[in-house]
Input
Amino acid sequence: MNKREFLKTGLAIGTGIFVAPALAGENILHKVETLPYNTGFTQIPLPYDYNALEPYIDALTMEIHYSKHHAGYTANLNKVAPDEGIQNKGIEEIMASVSQYSPAVRNNGGGFYNHNFFWKVLKPGGGNSPKGTFLKKINKTFRSFDDFKVQFSQKALTVFGSGWAWLIEQNGKLLITSTPNQDNPLMDIVTEKGRPLLALDVWEHAYYLKYQNKRADYIKAFWNVIDWEFIESRLERKDSF
Ligand code: MN
Output
């Protein structure tokens, strides 16, 4: 699936029948990017094959991660959605007021959103480094891209137990942070809130088959499969998500 098809699919999932017909046309990509980022309660189609991130992330891990773990969070979120009155809300909106809902929404809504985001962070043949204004911002905030990598890796390494490491934009500034379990920086309950730019899943299910207890090796491999264009596109968004 190429980028254009991927974005179209994302649109169909995210906006449903009410918005999609009005957007059918030449400017579809532009309009997608200016819409509130709404993933709906559907797993995005994985934008690459399970084995596409080899040797950095192995095929079996990807398959189980996507088809069991992420699928499980998604199914559970859909199951509780009617009782919670959230079936017609965007996932980001739900995250932003997650304190008003049950722990099932926090855990499964977080798991649903975080993985949809994570699949887009990853890319076969990714890596290299960010470019342009984003790289300038990285250099300004962390001194250099290498320093940023060290700090982000350290944050990911020191998440105790299960959780996520993030690069977020907070009031126009870049910040490295982490969340426990399936919490994320969109949630009103977390200390460091902001717009997620980069995410790394450090749950053992994300790496244990290949790396066992060596989380540091998994983190090192992660730098080879990052889609910096996607992350840059997140930074350029005008809305709060
Ligand atoms: Mn995971």
